[in-house]
Amino acid sequence: VLSFIIFICYIASLAASFMTAPLLEFLLALFLFFAYASKLNEKFKGLYWPLTDFLRCVTAAIIYFAISIAAVSKYNDGASKAAGVFGFIATIVYAIDFYITFNDLVTFLKQGSSDSPEGHKSEDEDSDSDSD
Protein backbone atom coordinates (compact mmCIF):
# COMPACT_ATOMS: atom_id res chain seq x y z
CA VAL A 1 0.00 0.00 0.00
CA LEU A 2 2.83 2.36 0.87
CA SER A 3 4.50 1.75 -2.49
CA PHE A 4 1.24 2.52 -4.27
CA ILE A 5 0.82 5.79 -2.33
CA ILE A 6 4.38 6.80 -3.20
CA PHE A 7 3.71 5.93 -6.85
CA ILE A 8 0.63 8.19 -6.88
CA CYS A 9 2.59 11.02 -5.24
CA TYR A 10 5.34 10.79 -7.84
CA ILE A 11 2.81 10.85 -10.68
CA ALA A 12 1.33 14.07 -9.30
CA SER A 13 4.73 15.69 -8.67
CA LEU A 14 7.45 17.30 -10.73
CA ALA A 15 9.63 14.28 -9.89
CA ALA A 16 7.62 11.98 -12.15
CA SER A 17 10.81 10.34 -13.37
CA PHE A 18 11.03 8.54 -10.02
CA MET A 19 7.66 6.80 -10.43
CA THR A 20 9.16 3.63 -11.93
CA ALA A 21 10.80 2.39 -8.71
CA PRO A 22 7.63 2.46 -6.54
CA LEU A 23 5.58 0.95 -9.36
CA LEU A 24 7.96 -1.98 -9.79
CA GLU A 25 8.19 -2.49 -6.05
CA PHE A 26 4.40 -2.43 -5.74
CA LEU A 27 4.02 -5.01 -8.51
CA LEU A 28 6.72 -7.24 -7.05
CA ALA A 29 5.18 -7.05 -3.58
CA LEU A 30 1.78 -7.85 -5.09
CA PHE A 31 3.25 -10.87 -6.90
CA LEU A 32 4.89 -12.20 -3.73
CA PHE A 33 1.68 -11.64 -1.77
CA PHE A 34 -0.34 -13.68 -4.26
CA ALA A 35 2.42 -16.31 -4.45
CA TYR A 36 2.24 -16.85 -0.69
CA ALA A 37 -1.57 -16.62 -0.64
CA SER A 38 -1.98 -19.22 -3.39
CA LYS A 39 0.69 -21.51 -1.82
CA LEU A 40 2.86 -21.10 -4.91
CA ASN A 41 5.89 -21.17 -2.62
CA GLU A 42 5.04 -24.75 -1.63
CA LYS A 43 4.71 -25.86 -5.27
CA PHE A 44 8.10 -24.45 -6.37
CA LYS A 45 10.58 -25.85 -3.88
CA GLY A 46 13.65 -24.99 -5.97
CA LEU A 47 13.40 -21.31 -5.08
CA TYR A 48 14.05 -20.28 -1.50
CA TRP A 49 11.28 -17.73 -1.07
CA PRO A 50 12.52 -15.98 2.10
CA LEU A 51 15.80 -15.22 0.30
CA THR A 52 13.85 -13.67 -2.56
CA ASP A 53 11.87 -11.59 -0.09
CA PHE A 54 15.08 -10.58 1.70
CA LEU A 55 16.75 -9.39 -1.51
CA ARG A 56 13.60 -7.49 -2.50
CA CYS A 57 13.51 -5.72 0.87
CA VAL A 58 17.20 -4.79 0.82
CA THR A 59 17.06 -3.35 -2.68
CA ALA A 60 13.77 -1.56 -2.00
CA ALA A 61 15.13 0.08 1.16
CA ILE A 62 18.23 1.32 -0.66
CA ILE A 63 16.33 2.56 -3.70
CA TYR A 64 13.60 4.27 -1.66
CA PHE A 65 16.21 6.00 0.49
CA ALA A 66 18.09 7.29 -2.55
CA ILE A 67 15.08 8.57 -4.48
CA SER A 68 13.56 10.09 -1.34
CA ILE A 69 16.69 12.14 -0.72
CA ALA A 70 16.64 13.29 -4.36
CA ALA A 71 12.93 14.11 -4.29
CA VAL A 72 13.10 16.11 -1.07
CA SER A 73 16.28 18.02 -1.90
CA LYS A 74 15.82 18.71 -5.62
CA TYR A 75 12.08 19.39 -6.07
CA ASN A 76 10.03 22.05 -4.29
CA ASP A 77 6.43 20.99 -4.96
CA GLY A 78 4.28 19.45 -2.23
CA ALA A 79 3.73 16.13 -3.99
CA SER A 80 7.48 15.56 -4.32
CA LYS A 81 7.98 16.37 -0.64
CA ALA A 82 5.13 14.01 0.30
CA ALA A 83 6.58 11.25 -1.88
CA GLY A 84 9.96 11.80 -0.24
CA VAL A 85 8.51 11.59 3.27
CA PHE A 86 6.54 8.46 2.40
CA GLY A 87 9.73 7.10 0.82
CA PHE A 88 11.62 7.58 4.09
CA ILE A 89 8.81 5.78 5.92
CA ALA A 90 8.98 2.98 3.34
CA THR A 91 12.75 2.79 3.88
CA ILE A 92 12.19 2.19 7.60
CA VAL A 93 9.45 -0.37 6.94
CA TYR A 94 11.60 -2.30 4.45
CA ALA A 95 14.59 -2.14 6.79
CA ILE A 96 12.52 -3.71 9.57
CA ASP A 97 11.23 -6.30 7.13
CA PHE A 98 14.69 -7.30 5.91
CA TYR A 99 15.90 -7.52 9.53
CA ILE A 100 13.09 -9.96 10.34
CA THR A 101 13.66 -11.90 7.13
CA PHE A 102 17.41 -11.98 7.83
CA ASN A 103 16.72 -13.67 11.17
CA ASP A 104 14.67 -16.32 9.32
CA LEU A 105 17.57 -16.85 6.90
CA VAL A 106 20.05 -17.27 9.76
CA THR A 107 17.78 -19.83 11.40
CA PHE A 108 17.50 -21.71 8.10
CA LEU A 109 21.26 -21.69 7.58
CA LYS A 110 21.87 -22.95 11.11
CA GLN A 111 19.48 -25.85 10.48
CA GLY A 112 21.24 -26.59 7.19
CA SER A 113 24.67 -26.66 8.81
CA SER A 114 23.65 -29.45 11.19
CA ASP A 115 22.81 -31.60 8.16
CA SER A 116 26.17 -30.93 6.49
CA PRO A 117 28.50 -33.75 5.41
CA GLU A 118 31.18 -32.54 7.85
CA GLY A 119 28.87 -33.35 10.77
CA HIS A 120 28.30 -36.87 9.42
CA LYS A 121 32.01 -37.31 8.73
CA SER A 122 33.01 -36.72 12.34
CA GLU A 123 30.33 -39.14 13.51
CA ASP A 124 31.63 -41.79 11.08
CA GLU A 125 35.19 -41.31 12.32
CA ASP A 126 34.01 -41.74 15.93
CA SER A 127 32.20 -44.98 15.07
CA ASP A 128 35.30 -46.29 13.24
CA SER A 129 37.51 -45.64 16.25
CA ASP A 130 35.02 -47.38 18.55
CA SER A 131 35.12 -50.57 16.46
CA ASP A 132 38.94 -50.81 16.75
From TrEMBL:
Organism: Gavia stellata (Red-throated diver)
Subcellular location, record wording: Membrane
Alphabetized InterPro entries for the sequence: Marvel, MARVEL-CKLF_proteins
Stated name of the protein: CKLF-like MARVEL transmembrane domain-containing protein 3
Renumbered residue ranges of the record's region Disordered: 112-132
One Pfam match: MARVEL
Entry membrane topology: Multi-pass membrane protein
GO-annotated cellular components: membrane
Signal peptide: none
Chain ranges of the MARVEL domain: 1-106
Chief place of localization: membrane
Transmembrane regions listed in the UniProt entry: 7-35, 47-70, 82-102
Keyword list, A-Z: Membrane, Transmembrane, Transmembrane helix
